[in-house]
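Loading example: each entry is read as two labelled lines plus one structure line.
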Amino acid sequence: MMRNIKINSNQFLVLVIFFTIGTSILEVPSALADKTNQDAWITAIIGTGIGLLVIWFFTWIALWFPTLTYIQITEKIFGKWIGRVASLIFISLPLLYTSSLLFQSGNFLNTHMMPYTPMVALNILMVGILVMGVYLGLETIARSAEILFAFFFLAFFVFVLLIAPEIRIENVQPVFEVNLKNMLQSSLFLVITSSVNAIVILMIFPAFLNKVKQARRSFLIGNLIGGIVIIIITFLSVSVLGADKTANEIFPSFELAKRISTGDFIERIEVLMASLWIISLYFKMILYFYATVFGIAQVLNLKDYRPLTMPLGLIVMVLSLVIYPNVVYKQDMNITTEYSFSLIVGIFIPLLLALIYGIRKKSLKKELNSSK
Amino acid sequence: MKRHMIVLLILSLFLTGCWDKRELNELAITVAMGIDKVEDEFQLTAQVVVPSEVSMKQSSGRSPVTLFQAKGETVYEALRKMTISSPRKIYPGHLRMLVIGEELAQEGIGESLELLSRDWELRSDFYVVVAKDKTAAEILNVSTPIESIPANKMFNTLKTSENSWSATKGITLDDLISDLISDGQNPVLSGIYITGNEESGSSKQNVESITPSAQILYDYLAVFNKDKLVGWLTERESIGYNYITNSIKTTVTSVSCPEKGKASIEVIQFKSDMKGKINKGEPEVDVNIQVEGNVGSVECHINLKEPVTIEELEKIYEKEVKESIDQTIETAQKQYKTDIFGFGQAIHRSNPKTWKKIKEQWDEKFTDMVVNVEVDLKLRRTGTVNKSFLKSLQE
């Protein structure tokens, strides 16, 4: 019954956009401005460019076997046992990152809106809709993404329009002060959160898409659109708040929304704007979670992944409470351990995969043809 | 599963909003805050709205605001300690004014601002001002006419005077902090002080007479070096400061007529452009000011029907404004030795490489750098009349 699920390339496009924007919209501006100051937005452009290359690389891998998910590809190429180990390492990434995002959503609400609410309560609610979404399946997720997408971009447009009068061009001058090496280094954060981690989307692409060719284009375009949103947000943060303040804020784009004040009338609407982040956060989280649940089901050769949703939801929730002892630790972990982890799972293993595929290409093709 | 979901949904109804609910009648809405340093401790004063007095219907004639005060080793501690005198928890989300006592300003304002930038309840869109010759608590203790809430009066006065007179400058916490942390720019803040008999200022009788016996007014700009108050600009210098930093919206400037008497020019459009450059290895800044204005009043005998007169007036204005700007720059360079104009940043923007080299010695470089000021006025209109009636009066 898993085979019947298909989403179209537009729905896929929307999912990819949400995944790319995800948490980056909240955190990337400060991460980029930290080292590259007023040139952060250029760094964002570089990061988006590199990200597109990474995505191109992923689609290249995925299209070797257009009907298989990433886990099946891994097992096919590496062989059953090594493949399984590699798959388990792969699954640990979305599992961990679902919890990480869950922590972030709770942490965001705790910091800016509800400081006395225990995080567990906020996370239970979030996990509730997470489990519900995955349980109802990919098609439901995709359709709801389509609906919320319209709202997301309307709100984003209004946001940009309202904050635009506050832009001060002096804040982004001098342009190109930072050298390219620093920019490349800083852009790594964006490349990893937005593109390298997108390897989990290979659990959907191309196996669950009805038109693979178009979907490949959607994957790239989605990543690009998401990247543009990040570039805009970074530019706005730096040009409105200034580089130093952007780097110092934990959630610079929320601070940005606080600055909106049009005619002493449209103001204090940052909470409305926060819904933007909650939406994109949710879809990124659900894609991670879907990859986790579905991945485990495939490794264990289960017919249906659904029985796993509830227990994994509980695991993810508990993990989200213990994963980081405090926010400082989290920020440190993000740029140290999680960097390496993402790079291993998202770049190193796929490269290894490509290498072995190159060696075993002929025998694999034969195997595939004979099985048909 | 569906049933589980329903249970979950129902549960979620009960799970939300219990912890962080805050009712309006549990909050002490703080509109102004004052910070002073008293014997090594921060003394925090909060001006809190009395809700029943600001409602239209049932005000009983008591003061619309009340003050709470507490001391603490940190500002945050003092803020929480305030609950020992306030029946409700201090809620600073609607803060309009932050007043800093002069003594504290001289010692350095950095530490006291840290909480305000970190706390989530505070938005950083309130104005920060310095109490001149007074403690912040004394400033907050004066009742005001027209706006019954003194914080609103302070906020609006600053806003209007900034827009139509331009000798003050409304600086929000964000602006202040970004001036504090950026190299090549030191902050200024508007000053505030009390005239008249301040002892009667806090009572309601103060505003019952036509002329209140104590009044709050704005003084001109306070000059900072890093986060320490080093001195004050005069009125002319404050306007000069705003000329340089492009923060004039409209203003009125009086100029001397060619012979005797005065005329006044109303500034309608204003734009000032600051460009840094390096001339023979030394930093230089060009300030280019373009003004459009109207002849506001002519209190002397000139013939406004002649185009030459307009040109003459333009020349005089340009010369006089340039003089007062030069005066401002000299005061900052020679007397206070602090770059309040952001010339350093202008150099940074134009010559980032040289800036890196001279950044460390900027304070010395600033004091003897060359600033070229250019003022260009274009007079457009002369109001509703052309020739002044004073002219016929004389004849």
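Residues 234-395 of chain B form a domain with the GMP Synthetase; Chain A, domain 3 fold (CATH 3.30.300.210).
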